[in-house]
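Running co-folding for iron/sulfur cluster.
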Amino acid sequence: MLWFVLTTGACNLRCQYCGGGFPPEYSPPRPVYGAEKLVESIRRLDPDPVIFFYGGEPLVNPKLIMEVMDLLPEARYGIQTNGLLYRQLPEEYWARFHRVLLSIDGVEEITDRWRGRGVYRRVLKALRFLRELQRRRGGPGAVIARMAVTHDTVIDRDVLHLLLDLGFDKAHWQLDAVWSPPWPIGRWARESYLPGLRRLAKWVAEKPWERLSRVVPFHGIVSALYNGGYRWYPCGAGRDAVAVNTDGRILACPIAVREEWAVLGRLGEWRGQLAHPRLLPERCRRCSYLPLCGGRCLYAQMEDAYWPRELLEELDWVTRRTIDIVLSVVVPAVERALEKGLMEPSSVYYDPLEESTEVIP
Ligand code: SF4
Ligand code: SF4
């Protein structure tokens, strides 16, 4: 099971699509429980935990990270961070991470426009530190660029910049949809995003044995096709993944700190009860793309009042066309590579719970 542990509700940045952490009344800046209590619960409920530190910005509270990693050395660990405070955590902890997800949106101009001036260069410092650590100590396992994709993004330019120019192991992205004010996502997708995705898919199709695993959304969709499809949200929200908020509540989704439907219980009292299957809406259960989409995002499905219905339908349309591009461009290349023995069948498999990714942008 995947456990998101919010070390704090506070953040050291104020990115435009997010606004900077959670209000303290919903997610206090410091946990109200001790690390021992958290570790005792995880041990009792889960023999094979994957633990990702999350926030706010998790490095605002490195103490909890160190305590948990010391108390539960057998778990697999990861972190989702903006990386700016990387010096707050000693390198032996960094080296133990199985995955590090660093927030960066693409080229410098785009990253700084949305995340703040100078952020790009500071993230690069963290990346250089992690790369050097990988060489010297053999860890962290993989460094993944975690992008927020806005109407300014040129998807193939920005993903390839992160993978080829900067040397991230992989890239994953989320669309700036639903939690930002409404914007014409369908028009942008037609004019920029989908043509860019097609170019990116062609790049992957040239050498899928090397490149498929580097573009997380493509890998996750191809994996679903070959491995029976998703029966729930790919991120696992509330069924295979839970979040421990700093106030001790167990949540189905790490960003749903305000929403009652997301509360599964309280630390110490929670017996492992999971989100109700009804939280996958009828609309998705009837959709022919469900096996490859999984419903995309529980939070967006539940909080559908932020955007007008026609924009949510455009978002579904973008998701379906994204899947179509993977099916028409990437999958035939994977088929050929498998037939020729250039790719191992096992390399097609992707488990988003190991990396805390959502698969569908
Ligand atoms: S494309 Fe839309 S309606 Fe279909 S499964 Fe995905 S989120 Fe649900
Ligand atoms: S994809 Fe949606 S439901 Fe899943 S963790 Fe992210 S915000 Fe929560």
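Result summary
The pocket of iron/sulfur cluster (ligand 2) is lined by residues 233, 235, 237, 253-255, 297-300, 358 (CB under 6 Å).
The chain has a mean pLDDT of 96.
Job closed.
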